[in-house]
Specification:
By secondary structure, the chain is of the alpha+beta class. The chain is built from seven helices and four strands.
């Protein structure tokens, strides 16, 4: 939104809508602009004010705010302290670091007066106003971002029933166990009998099933 560099071309390649906004970075004006843009209605909208201080590694932590159960979650710019008094923040003219808003939140902001605060919003609206805090130290922030990415990947694989998760992981486990047992367990038998034959066949079957599952996972993944 409001960008005129390579990001517009990149968004176009992925069929993402691009809207041009050249106004002031005030909450009410941006929300009104979004309502007038006739975009497809979605459950939650996340707006991030990109500045020279913002880093790409901040994105996972900021995106997690959109998963919280808020109709309006706003991080006020330039406070330096997470604790702010909602009665002192005029929402219509405040500048934000990031803003999470739902359609109900947009409608409430549209009906809010020019001097309205969070206390003037409807009581049934879930609202949170916080100040901007100092950046988390880099090692901790990168660790949190990495953990968040792995958690999102794991959740996506579960929800999408990804073949690498459904077949690949069990296949690797069975193949490794079968390979290990083939050298440690089968060699312990000194004579050929029904027990040794049964164990040997079980180990071979485990290894082959694991190998087959990995092949299925790779085939389904490449389709």
């Amino acid at each position: 939104m409001g960008s005129n560099d390579e990001t517009v071309e990149l968004a176009s390649e992925f069929d993402c809508p691009v809207i041009n906004y050249n106004g002031e970075m005030e909450t009410s004006k941006i929300v009104s602009f979004l309502q007038e843009s006739n975009l497809d209605e979605i459950a939650t909208t996340l707006l991030i004010h990109i500045t020279s201080q913002w880093k790409l590694r901040d994105l996972p932590l900021t995106a997690n705010r959109a998963r919280d159960n808020w109709d309006l979650h706003i991080s006020v710019k330039g406070t330096g302290n997470e604790k702010v008094n909602p009665e002192e923040i005029i929402l219509s003219s405040v500048e934000f670091n990031h803003l999470v808003i739902t359609p109900d939140g947009m409608q409430a902001m549209a009906n809010l007066g020019p001097l309205g605060t969070a206390m003037d919003l409807p009581d049934d609206l879930r609202v949170r106003v916080v100040g901007s805090t100092s950046q988390v130290n880099v090692p901790q922030q990168e660790s949190l971002a990495t953990a968040s990415r792995f958690a999102q990947l794991f959740y996506w694989m579960l929800e999408s029933k990804h073949p690498l998760f459904l077949f690949g992981v069990p296949g690797i486990v069975l193949f490794v166990l079968g390979y290990k047992l083939s050298g440690n367990v089968v060699d312990t038998f000194d004579e050929l009998n029904s027990t040794s034959i049964g164990v040997t066949l079980s180990v071979i079957a485990m290894t082959m099933i694991g190998l087959f599952a990995m092949m299925v996972a790779i085939i389904l993944y490449t389709i």
